[in-house]
Structures are given as C-alpha cells and as structure tokens.
Amino acid sequence: MQRYLLHIVLFLSILFLSDSVVWGISVNAMEDTTYTISGTVSGDVQDDVTIDISGDYETSTQTVSDGSYTISGIPHGSDITITPSRTGYSFSPSNRTVNNITSNQTGQDFTSSQLSYSVSGSVSGAIQGGVTITVSGDHSATTETASNGSYSITGIPHGANITITPSRTGYSFSPSNRT
User: Fold this and answer.
1) pTM more than 0.70
2) Which residue from 69, 75, 87, 97 puts its CA 20 to 30 A from 164's CA?
C-alpha cells in the first residue's frame, strides 16, 4: 500500500512540476452534490399535507404535526416546483418555483385555509318570510328567510354533514328537514 501511495505522489508531483507540458485535472464535483428543501405549512391545517416536488426532480412527502417538511437529495442545478395539497384546503401561495438550485432552500412556507361553502334555498307555501332555518350536524348556524322565502347560509366547512330544518310557530313544513 505504501509503495502505491509513493508512486501516486511521485506521479502527481511530476505532472504539476513539468514546465514543458501543461497538465490539467478536471473534476466536476457539483454534478453529484444534492441539496435539501424545507419549509412549514401554517394556518387551518398543518399535519398530513402532501408536498409534491415536480420538475427536474420529482418526489413527495407529508408534513408532520407541526407543519414542517424536509425533502433531501435534490440535484445541483435543478429547477423544481413545490406544491402543497390536502382535500378540503387551499394554500397560499398555491406553489413555489425554485430555479437552478445551488444551495439548501429553507423557508419554502405555505399558509392553509379550509374551504367552505354556502347553502341557499327557499321556502314556499302559505308562509315564506320570517321562517327560521337551522343548520345542525357538523356545522351549526341559524338564519331567517327573506320576505320572498329565500335564505343563504355561508361558512359550511368542506365535508361537513349537515341537516337543514325550517321552523315557525304554528306552521309545519314538508319535508321537515333536508340533509
């Protein structure tokens, strides 16, 4: 082993000390260098958000309970897009693009907002205005119909199972509720 080491040192010394010949050694270590992308999802949901990486490098991961995520192994010079997703939520920004990665990328953060919906309808018949509309189940709300019998309830979370029940003293309604 020592004999080979001596020959290598001697050979390299000759290469670099030679005046008449220009010797060059080209090493592109950057081609094998990889980097890490990390960030946090905050807002209405933090855990179990899927983080997709697309572009020159593709993979995905899930956020942990505090909303953080880390993806390693992204090759030097990659152009990627980071996109969060989870059913029932929107994210701001909707994605982030990082071009020509030459270092670790921290602070690739997103804010989540739960999607919500509205339910509207109308009551017809002998009485239209002043009917109490009650929402129960996974979401609770109450409103009254307008004089033409119309109503609207907003802010119902994505995936909520609800029952809508009309009521007014002295009146019965058919159907008595809707789910």
Assistant:
1) no
2) 87
